[in-house]
What does this fold into?
Amino acid sequence: MSLMEAFRSALEALRAHKLRSALTMLGIVIGVAAVIAMIAVGGGAREQVAAQIRTLGANLIMLTPGNITAGGVRLGAGQASSLTSDDAGAILADVPAVQAAAPIIRSNQQVVAGANNWATQIVGVDLGWFEAREWDVAQGRLFTPEEVSRGALVVILGETVATNLFGEQSPLGQQVRIKNVPFEVVGVAARKGQSALGQDQDDTAFAPLPTVRQRVAGANRANARSVGSIMVKVREGEDMANALEDVRALLRQRHRLQPDQDDDFGIRNLAEMAAVREASASTLASLLAAVAALSLAVGGIGIMNIMLVSVTERTREIGLRLAVGARPRDVLRQFLIEAATLSAIGGAIGVALGLGAAQIVALKAGWPLLVEPAGVALSVIFSAFVGVFFGWYPARRAANLDPVEALRAT
It folds into this structure.
């Protein structure tokens, strides 16, 4: 029996038992649909995490003020005015692994433009901030070094702020008021989207650090050089852990802390936080892959069971084929083709259902939908392999039937 004849005979047998064939394929359909959904949704989730990580910038360390103790009571992190602009300058100058160190002051204020106003966060920065965060402008320009040093009344608006204040009009050269202080809009920051914590990073306005300190947030009377935090960018290829320890050692020295004293500042490796989120997404993908593999295994066992039933029901047919000259390998080939065909058809249906399910999940979760053609093709091929693997035993049993005994079966 030729391969085409075996294939035609297998299709006729499947058509003769449509309901049984459909039920046999069901396990494979569910398994392949789970595989496709896993590939698409898992890839979309990883891309979402990667996109959020990219918006932060690479190789970042965040420094924040530390705890302050008053009357034996520890008031918690962020209460001490322990970080200054000079600390940022020293980090940049004395730690070779550091590419940029940006002091930051934040103040929530109302921004007014004509008849429109918008409550947002005003961030006082120098040019190192844009380098550390890898953040450029979509329109206009960044501050000049001279504007930063003299505390010029200029501002760069985030996309959300610009849209709410000016709509479709260009804000460049327009005037906005912050705490009744007039600022000239010199740029609109490039879109960053949501942060890893779900915050709108574009709902921000940037102004020179001295300007925000003196005209918006108000100078700290105890320390006029204090800042709210410092963003440190480590050079590409440098060891983050070593850079972090060098920064910590330098700040402890500058703050004259004794060996038995705790740090009066907080220090966080944002790259580690990003790695944890990426690992979480990979764990989710692995879990989905395990579920999909179990579904395929269950589907394969279903194929084996139904094929065994088919062998029992068709014993006389098999005996007749063997009696008129069919070889055992012809019977083996026919049953393997039946199993592989069932699995391949189930795999194709599963691909369609999996893509539909992945599309729904992606729309609901707001994730991108990533489907690799190679992954789809591999799923269908693997489903056919499952059919052959689990169909081998029933096919072998059919091929080994004794023609005389098979013809006597009732």
